[in-house]
Amino acid sequence: MNNESMVAEFILLGLSSVPEMDAALFSVFLIMYLICMTGNLAIIIIACVDPALNTPMYFLLANLSFLDVVCTTSTIPNMLVNFFSESKVISFQGCVVQMFVFTAAMDTEFLLLTLMSLDRYLAICNPLRYKSIMSKQACICMSAVVWSFGLCSSTYHTSSTFRLSFCASNKINHFFCEIPQILALSCSDTHINELVLIVTDVILGVVCFVLIFMSYVFIIIAVLKIRSVEGKKKAFSTCASHLTVVVLFYGTLIFAYFRPSSGNSSNTDKIIAVLYTIVIPMLNPLLYSLRNKEVKESIKKVIFRQNHINH
């Protein structure tokens, strides 16, 4: 207890310890952040303004894009500032807010991807009852439940983490405040925190993955029963973007949490964190726009309409 002190701020060591790389890394991540914001905000806007996209699928897609905006904005801008900051300091309160927002976005995304797979399952396997089950009110209620669970989970993890006592060291070997790195600085017994974190990961990760997997098994069986080749292509095309996002998202997190530990685990953790904080959120709108004719047509209509107004 003598070595403990009240921590008023944390120092984020960042991605690299080589100052000469900061300018190049800043440029790369700034471009990626701008692409991510532009793509996800474009998805949100066209889903709101185009009546043709006023469907449960695009309502959930707009939610996913908003989550990506929140997740990326909670981490990347602060990292960009720290590239040119000598102190690289984040206040205690700032670290709390960053962890809360990031954790809420990640936990909510697990459930939202599961809800999106349920939407595709109903649309393909039970098309006659699809509109009655996935009504506007039902989509809003299910989305509210998903968001509420994510916020409650994040509230518990964040509050229980920052109730702990911290040692004299306040240096976080990461580019943002994430739960495992904060627990590593604590002088308190963190076994309960780690156990609850594992249980939450199992519930959100494994259970949601199993539900998504089962949904796509039934989807594939239903699609294979379609006689026309064109019908099969159309059915698969509506699922291809979501399935690609699921593979990227879960593949990254499975590698992050189930890989064997090594001497360079800290550097590997940072690289993996870059994938799920900026790379995947940047790719999501590109995958949905490039593989989806409705999204591409909607973007063209919005651009044409804006050009017509300007003229």
Extended strand count: 3
Low-confidence stretches: 1-5
Radius of gyration from the alpha-carbon trace, in angstroms: 21 Å
Helix coverage percent: over 70%
Shape verdict: globular
SS summary, helix count: 11
- In the CATH hierarchy, what is the architecture at level 2? Up-down Bundle
Task: Write down the CATH topology.
Answer: Rhopdopsin 7-helix transmembrane proteins
What pattern of helices and strands is seen along the backbone? EHHHEHHHEHHHHH
CATH homology group:
Rhodopsin 7-helix transmembrane proteins
Give the percentage of residues in beta strands.
under 5%
Query: How far apart, in Å, are the first and last alpha carbons?
Result: 71 Å
The biggest beta sheet is recorded as: 3 strands, mixed
The largest beta-sheet arranges its strands as: 2-1-3
The CATH class label is: Mainly Alpha
Compute the average pLDDT. Answer: 85
Walkthrough of the structure:
The model is unreliable at 1-5 (pLDDT under 50). The chain has one domain (18-165, 172-303): Up-down Bundle (Rhopdopsin 7-helix transmembrane proteins), CATH 1.20.1070. With 311 residues, it is mostly helical. The chain contains eleven helices and three strands, in the order βαααβαααβααααα. Strands 2-1-3 form a three-stranded mixed beta sheet.
